[in-house]
Structures are given as structure tokens and as C-alpha cells.
Amino acid sequence: MTSWLDHTINGLIVGNIYALLAVGLALIFGVSRLINFAHGSVYVVGAYIGWVAVAHLHTPLPVTILLVAAGSALLGLLIERFGLRPLQGSTKIAPLLATIGISFVLDQIVQIVFTPDPRALPSQLPDWRFQIGGGTIGALDILIAAIGFTSAVLLFGFLRFTKLGWAVRATAQDRDAARQMGVDVDQVNRIVFAIASALGGLSGLLVGMYYNYIDPAMSFQATLKGVVAEVVGGVGNIPGAIVGSLILGLVESYGIALLGTSYRNLFAFILLVVILVLRPNGLFASKRQLPPEPLTGTFIAPSKPVPLPTPALLAALAVAAVLPLVIAQPYLLQTLTNAWLYALLGISLTLIAGTVGQISLGHAALLAIGGYTSALLTLDLGVPVGLSILAAGFVAAGLGTLLAWPAFRLRGHYVTIATLAIGEIVSLAILNWESLTRGPIGVFGIPPISLFGYPIESARAVYWFTLAILAVLAALQLRLLRSHLGRAWRAVRDDDVAARSYGIALDRYKALAFITGGFAAGISGGVTSHLYSFINHETFNAQLSILALTIVILGGMGNVFGAIVGSVLLIGLPEVFRVAAEYRVLIYGLVLLLLIRFRPQGLFGTV
Amino acid sequence: MPLLEVSGLVRRFGGVTAVGGVDLSVEEGRLVSVIGPNGAGKTTLFNLITGLDRPDEGKVSFDGADITGFAPEKLAHLRLARTFQHGRVFANLSVLGNVLVGAHARLRAARPRLPVLGALGELALALIQPGSVRREEAALRAEALAIIARFGERLLPRQDQPAYSLSYANRRRVEIARALALSPRLLLLDEPTAGMNQTETAEMQALIAELKASGLTILLIEHKLDMVMSLSDEVVVMDDGKVIARGLPQAVRHDPAVIEAYLGHREVGGGAAEKALAEAAE
Amino acid sequence: MIHATRRRALALGSLLLATAAAPAAFAQTAKPTGEPVLIGVSGPLTGPNAQYGAQWKKGFDLALDEINASGGINGRPLAYQFEDSQSDPRQAVAIAQKFVADPKIVFEIGDFSSPASMASSPIYQRAGLVQFGFTNSHPDFTKGGDFMWSNSLTQAEEQPQVAQYAVKELGLKRVAVLHLNTDWGRTSKDILVKAVRDFGAEVVATEGYLPEEKDFRSTLVRVRDANPDGLLLISYYADAALIARQLKATGLNKPVVAVGSIYSPKLIELGGDAVNGIYTNSQFFPEDPRPEVQTFVKSYIAKYGAEPDAFAARAYDTVILAGHVFRQYGTERRAIRDGLAEIKDVPSVIFGKATFDKETRRVVGAQNARLVIKDGKFVVWDRSAIPTR
């Protein structure tokens, strides 16, 4: 039974660490209604500032802490000034996407400056620990808890008892009303970003010292865990964020105790989804708090789509179809084949995120379901390849819709968080469900594509095969968009309250969108698995979901042709920039930022 | 039997009782107005009737059937249409698209049948688009255009423009056009003339009168009392979540409790309403 | 006892100094000229695995310096073209198409991860270009076709040695296994567990963890509850350092035996005091007196000012091996494939002498040094030194 005590203490220690991240996220959400995906990057920058201070300047701990807090606060101010303030008055989704772009840029800069190698960040505290249960608690544990607790108390006091704090709270409650009452909302935003970033950077320093380990790639995990903890506690709620973090730590620790180490994140994400479904405002949301902001109507950029007459589309298709006869370079054809496969993912997501307004960050899960379905059907049951790919579409449509079901009752950013979590759950389920999926070993020897016994192996054949699938599915989607269904979907996106009042049952139409979109994504995953011959749980990772969303934004929300062009560009450009190797992600992040800033409606406009 | 009957409806938010035991009934073909100062609970009452909010107590019946707590999408299938106080149009849909969404609940394909198969059937029909579906769509389109035509030059030339590009007044018109596309049995209008100038208000008043004359049953929330007085068969006055007076427009306008309610809310009620009341009382 | 070990280590050190003066493996000749012989490399330079791509480059460059300083490939310089795949299968297949269509590329190395490498295998196989996966220990990698070759250690070879070290030499009877839950970690674990049982010891717990895991406290509580008398780690250096530090914090003082992939100066940097006493079975050990090892270590330190690790050694080994094949069998794609099957006893840091098994297209017979970390240094383990923990 002492193990349970130990698991409890371990859970609290880990939760303690999450709390440092979650408090900053909660503060920013409270004021800006923004889930700051760049928070993890600030955390990384803070850790590296600390490393420079400790390893090169040999500063004592208090000075290190001050340097990190000041440096990170400055970074927060820069993010706010150049990344987010220009987006004021833009669509609600724009700042969220901008923080994703900012995090790409920051992580990559850190990686270029400090190399991707992990570094040791030695703790400057005495190695002093005392025994509790079967484990020990050290000086750093106490320091982390003290900083977490002190910052929460200071923040609470600041918000409650100072004039500026009052302004922050007023802004958080109603931005426009606060502005009218003479609150300098920009000033409030600056202060909040500075404080939150200082905390974020500080947590990077402390966590780095705690594990004596920092690397530039730790940003995504940090953001993810911080967001989960924040949502559990109730977004925007600072004490809630701390308690939420401790609960997350405990749930993970007990999860490991029950089932084993590789279940840690599975428990974290299931906790998130359960909380979102049962208590979308978090465990500690006060009753008076407003329900989740509708975030509809202005969620996506209103714009007139660029008119694309059918003859022009057919001409584009014809050019694509004869291309392999003119240029037979397999590398080019392979790149375009990839683009077609991603375009299938793109039209799927542009339907769900663009047409129906459900910004999904877990879309790679649909590819994974499709990929595994087709691979396992051919290998384990001997189903012919063409049929298995079709089945992949249907299974992804069905299973994907069921999995996304909990997110149907959510709105705005909550959908994004929930789908992100659902995507991770699928990936972890694939990793852990060994009897079906072969676990981490992956599925090997997936037969190449063939139709009615004719192999489709050459770069040219695969190109035509994928192009044909894309053309058919895109045409079907356009047909649906012109039907009453397309109208109903767009109504759900623009105003779900009004849509319901006119007989559009949200569950039904969201489900239909996921079925339609899931089919295209499942087919894409299925074809991919036969093309690669080997897949495992990492083949379709979270990066793909972000890529898919970028494709959709680039092309224009809901715009089928835009999604196709977007994926040709986003798959093609990295190939063009291949010479710039180390700078590619940086360029990618900057392009995303510029796009959000200067053409939020995408290349071809929202449909 | 009244078409709509509301009895003992209560809705509390935390410690505040927004609607405290309201009774109301609307006979078929009549126009009933709900007036009252801001914060009297009128919109909350609308939300309770139209399923956007659930009452803590009380009952709502429509055409004799209990519809308390029904989801809004279900009420739409019963042909209960509403407009919204601040105007909720589908910003990226064209004017025509908005009006066609209004007819959504009338589509054969969209009727709720079996839970899963019904939805899949709808998807199949949208994909295949057999002749019947296309004919239905064409008929609805013609009908929608006819509805838009009722708003004359205000909407007709803009039928293909996205709703976000319209003026505020035009968005309100689109809302009403959308509600009419449902061919409603009961129409609930929440301040249809808010933000309109005098000419526009007069146009709207004429349209509502015309709708009433065509036999449509209407429940109206309105601040412009001269309009209420000239259109209504019955006026219900609310204050602090309660009905403080009801009856014929002439009777209500002289009710001391009503005058008191409006004067008492001078600060919050807005001078316009008070002035209107005073004018109407003369 | 400690003194005795240190003296041995010192003796070994002076022996090394003597051998280090031995002539380099390749004789100095004229600077190579003309069209370079090109190796295509597909690997991560950005993304989460970027650190490994950076290490590859160091190993490759060193080998190129050496080969080109000694006449290149029969007078032509050897070069590589590194394409960043981010270890992403989608990009790896595009790179594969690029390489197979480029007649200048005669040999391909990579990718890093199994999904990326094995997704591109069908393309290389169809085109008849050797895909050489030097980090691909996935048991199915070389089954992709007769153009898939690997000098990555097979787990069937390495794991029994770890088991032997732990059970036979260190006398552990009840072990707990912690492994990375990846294809490599999982395959290794299965073989290791079997080997441990074959040697007559018991496996009381196995725990798989995700590569991004940083906190192992709860895992270690589970391990403690299983009451093992030692821990076996199937880890890379970064996670091994984290585990070692947390073992110390948890107060679980049991012997730790780890696989060779933890061998890196970074392990000491990241782990600090906590890694002292870890036993490992390494195929690469810089103080190994063999001339190929000493040439490598010396020139690595000279070029980069830091000690090499096992990854760099493998990268270096691979290009050296390719150089030998090209020199002996020419630079025609198929000839290279046939040459790999033929070539014998190529000097190798990892294998001593590398020869491929024609059936499995892998190399067997890696060097095996039993090491232990003492006072922040890897030293050769010596039976008389146990048990120190």
C-alpha cells in the first residue's frame, strides 16, 4: 500500500511541474480567449536562457531566475506586439494559428542557435532531499512548488487588489465594455503576455534543472500537457489551473500504476476528453461563468471566394492528367502523388474545419485508421488491395465519426483541443493495442497497390491512380456542397444557434461531415499504407494534423480547389527549399504567419 | 384551443429570477406582443419557448402537445420560426442561401427518421440527387425568391451577396425572410425593427401587418410602442420577469402599473421606450 | 579494489598511446579529381530527430576526409548529398524517387527511423539502388529486398550479450527491464527477456516508455514493487541519463545494465553522478586499442573537439565501408550490391572486421567491450571490481 502513497507523491510532483505551465496559459486565455500554442516555445527559450546564464555567465540562482524571467517576459512582449496585436479585429481562429506559426519559428531558431543536441542544465541548488514514503523530495521540488504557489498568490493579489489587476479582470470579462470604460486593453494584453511568458520561461528553467536536461524538441509536449492541465482546471481559471495540473499528474501516475508506463499520455488525453464532455468549463468553473464563447460567425474570415468556373477546373485536371506524358521524372511525379494524397486529407479537413467550422487538430488519426484498416485487411484477411482501400474509407468514416462524437457538443477552440486529444488517443491506442496493430513494431510487408490483379507500382501509375481518386472525391464533395447539405453545413459554421432554430440538428450534420471527410482521409491513409509498405504509430503523427490545417487555411476554408492547390504548394515548396535544409521549418512558420496576417481568407477565399 | 400556451414558466440564473411564472397564450391567427423595459425577461421567455434555454418550472404547449424543453431543431420541424434580437444571419451564405436554410426543416430528405439510417439516407440523396430531390430544391428556390421579392428593392438586387456584406437593417430583413421560408405556423419576432430608421420601421410594420392579414400567428417583442399598439390583438407587459398587465392595447396603455414600470426603469429602460409610451398614451 | 581498477585503466591508456602512433589505414596519395562518386543520404536535419542527423554528418565528414585524403575512389573524390527528410516517410519516399532517378547517386544511406526507411524501400528495391540503413535495427528492414542492407547491430546478437553480462557476470537473478517503446526497443526487449530466461534468471517486470517521456518516478515505483535485484535498460543515452538520475532520487540502489546505444559522452554530461556504476555492453569504446578505433577517435577529437559517441562511430564506419566496396567493386549500382555480398573483413570500428551474411544482408560479430562508468568515465569492466553498488 505504500506504493499508492508513492504514486500519489509522484503524481503531485509531476503535477507541480505542469502547474507552472498551466498558470501562464490560464492567464493568457483569461484575458485573450486564446490558447497559446507558443507557450511551449517560450518554455524552451526560457530553458536556454537559463543554460546560457548557468553555463557561460555562471550566475547564481536568483540572478538566473531574474534573467530568465526578464528574457521570457521580453519574448512575450515581442510575441504580443508582432505576432498577435496585428491580428486584432481579425477572425477568432487567426491568433490561435498564429501561435502555432510562432512556435515553429521559435523552436527552429533555438535549434539553429543551440543545435538539436540535448544539453545538461545543472541545478544550482544543494542536492538535499528527505525521505517520504518510498521516495524522496528534494530542494528543487520545494522550489518549484514554492514558485508555482507564490506566483499564483501574487497573481491572485494582483488581479484582486490592484488597479491594473482590475483592468485585467474587466478585459477578461468583456473586452469591449472594458475599452469603453477607459481600460487600455492593449496595455493589459502586454502585461498579461509578459507575466505569462515570464512564468513559462521560468518553468522551462526549473524543469530543465529538475531533469538536468533540455532540448529544443521539448516544446510541443510542454504545450500539450499545459493545455490539458488548464482545460481540466477550467480555462482561464488560475487556481483551477493549479489544481487541474495536480489532478493531471495524479491521473497519469495512477494510470501508470494500473497499466504501465506507456499508458501515461493515454490517461492524460482521456481525462481531457472526459472533462471536455462532462464539464466543458473545467472542474472548477464557477456557475456564473459564461458558457464557452460561441466563436461562430466571425470564426473564419468572411470573404468572396475566387470564382472557379467548371471549365477551368476541368482544364486543370486535364493538365494534371497529361503531365506524366510530358515530364516523366519519377521524383516530380512522386512529389505530386504525395500532394494528391495530402489533398485528399485537405479536402477532408476543409470540409470539417472550413465548411462546418470544426477546427480539427487530430485529423491524422483518420489517416492512421485508414492506413491500418487497409494494411491489416490485406495482410491478415487476404482482402484484395483495391477493396481494402475502399474499406479503409468506410472504416475511417464510421470510426472517425464515433471518435469525434464527444467533440460534437463543443464549440470553437474547445473542438480544436478535443480533436487534438482524440488524435493522440488514436495514436496511443495503436501503440498499445498490440494484438491488433502489432504495437511499436508496426505493420510490415503491406502489398503494393493493384487493381483487379494489375499492379500499380510505377511512379506514373501511382500518380494517375491517386489523381483519379482525388478527382472523383473532390467532384463528389463539390456536388454535396451545392446540395442542401452544403448549405446546412455552412449554416452550422456561421451560426449554430440560428442553424438549430431552423431544424439543423448539429450532431446529425457534424456526423455527416465527419463521415464524408473521414471517407476521403481514410482512402488517403489506405493508399499511403500500400505505397509505403510499412506503417507504424508514428507514420501518421500530430505534425501531419498541423500540416493539414495549414493546407486548408492556405487554400481557403471550405474551398475544395483551394485545398488541392494548398497541398501542392505545401508539399512542393519544402521540396524546393530542400537546399535550405535547416531553415525549412523556419520558412514554413514564417509563411504561415504572413498568410494569417495578410491573407486570412487563404488563396482562394472562404466558401 | 390556443396554438401556443405557456403556463407558469420559471427560469432562474444563479440568484436572479429572469422569468418568474409567466402565463401566455396565443390563438391561431392572432398577433400577441410582449413589451416591457430592458431586462424584463422578454428574450429569456422567447428562448424558453424556442428551446434555446430550458425552463426550471412550467410548461409550454404547441397545438395541444407538450413541447417543454424540446430542442430547437425539433421545434423547427413543428414549423415554429423565430428571429433573433441582435440578428443572427449566416454571414458567409448569400441572401438566397440564408432564406433556403429557413426551409431546411421542410425538405423531405432532412426530416428526422431513423437515427443513423435517416442521416445516411440524407447523404445518399444529396449525392445522387434524384429527380424528386432536384424538383423539390427548384420549387423551394422559386419560393425563396418570391419571399425575397416581398422585400422589394431592399433584398432582391442583393440575393447573391453574402450576408456579412449587408447593412444591419437588411440583415434583419433576411432573418424575417428566412423565418418565412419555414412557412411557419407560429412566428416569433424579437424586436424586428431594432436599429431601423423611421422609413424602415414603417416598411417593417406594413410587412408584419400584411403577414398578420394573411392569417399568420405571431408573437412579437417590440420596443416601438406605436407599432405594437397598432398591430397587436393583445399586449402582454412584463417587468422583472413577471407579467404585470395584459389585454387589449388600449387597456394596457392606461394601466398605471405599466406606466410605473416604464417610469421606474427610466435609467435602464432607455428614454425611447418611455417617450414612446408617453406618446402612445396621449 | 577501486585502485586496482584504476591502475588497469591507466595501463590500458598508455597502451593506447602507443598504438595511436600507428600509421593511418589509408596511405597518402594525390588529391582526387573529377566527377565525385555520390552517396545519397536521406535523414533528419530538422524536426524532432534533428540531433541524430547532425551526428551523422560529423561521422560522414570524417570518413570522407580520410577517404579523399588517400586518393578517393580510384582517383575520384567521394561525396554525399544529404537530403533532409525530417524522418518523415512522405518526404523520404520523394527523396527516394529523386535519388533513384539521379544517375550520379550510386548508393543510398538512411533513413533514420523505421517508418521513413521502410516506406522508401520499395522504391530503392524496384530501381536497384542499394539502401543502406545503418541505424535500422528493425528486424524486417533487410527483408524489403536484396537491395536493403544494414550494418546495424542485430538485436539477436546484442541482447544475449547484455543478458550474459547481467546474469552470468554480475550474477543478477531477478531483473526488471525498462525499454523504449519503439520498434527497436520492443524487438530488443523480446530478445533480451528470452535471453535472460535462457541464462536462468527471472524477469520480474517489463516497462515500455515513450521516447518523449521525461519522468520515470511512477515507473520506478512499479519496478521497485516487483523487487528486482537489478535493472536492464534498453535506452538511448538521453533517457538512460534521466532514468539513472531518478533512480537515485527514488533511492532504488540496484545495479543497472544497459545496452550499447547509451554509449555517449552526453550520458555522463546529462546524468552526472547518477550514472556512475552503470554497466554497459558497448560495441564502441574509444579506448579500444585497435588501430581503426584509434584513427577514428583521434581524428574525431581533432576535427570536432569532442569525444565521439556510438552514433558517430556507426556513421563513420558506414562511409568507410562504402569506400572499400566502391574501390574494390566499382561504382555501378548493381556491382555495389554484389560487392556488399562479396566483400570480406572490412576494418570497422564497431565490428573489428565487417563481413555481410548474404542471406540476412546484415553484419554479425560486433566487438563487445564490457564497460562500467566509474567516476564519470567509461572504463573496461573488470570482474574483480564487483560488486561496487
- Estimate the mean pLDDT confidence of chain B: 87
Instruction: State which percent range the strand residues of chain C make up.
Output: 15-25%
Biggest beta sheet attributes of chain C: 7 strands, mixed
In the CATH scheme, the class of the largest domain in chain C would be: Alpha Beta
CATH homologous superfamily grouping of the largest domain in chain B: P-loop containing nucleotide triphosphate hydrolases
Count the E strands of chain B: 10
CATH architecture of the largest domain in chain B: 3-Layer(aba) Sandwich
How many helices of chain B? The count is 12
- CATH-derived topology of the largest domain in chain C: Rossmann fold
Approximate shape of chain B: globular
Notes on the protein architecture:
The complex is a heterotrimer of chains A (607), B (282) and C (389). Chain A has helices spanning 2-32, 39-57, 61-84, 93-114, 139-161, 163-173, 175-180, 185-211, 219-233, 238-259, 264-278, 310-326, 330-355, 364-381, 385-404, 413-432, 434-437, 459-482, 484-494, 496-501, 506-532, 542-555, 560-576, 584-598; strands at residues 129-132, 135-138, 443-444, 450-451, 454-455, 534-535. With 607 residues, chain A is mainly α. Among the domains of chain A are: 16-125 and 133-217, no CATH class; 331-541, no CATH class. Chain B has 282 residues and is an alpha/beta fold. A six-stranded mixed beta sheet of chain B has the order 6-7-8-3-9-10, with helices on both faces. The model of chain B is unreliable at 266-271 (pLDDT under 50). In chain B, a hairpin with a 2-residue loop joins strand 4 and strand 5 (65-66). Chain B starts with a strand and ends with a helix. Chain B contains twelve helices and ten strands. Chain C has 389 residues and is an alpha/beta fold. Chain C has two domains: 4-153 and 290-358, 3-Layer(aba) Sandwich (Rossmann fold); 155-282 and 369-380, 3-Layer(aba) Sandwich (Rossmann fold), CATH 3.40.50. Chain C is built from twelve helices and 16 strands. In chain C, the strands form four sheets. In chain C, strands 7-6-8-9-10-15-16 form a seven-stranded mixed beta sheet, sandwiched between helices. In chain C, strands 2-1-3-4-5 form a five-stranded parallel beta sheet, sandwiched between helices. Chain C has a two-stranded antiparallel ribbon with strand order 11-12. In chain C, helix 8 (237-250) runs parallel beside helix 9. Chains in contact: A-B, A-C.
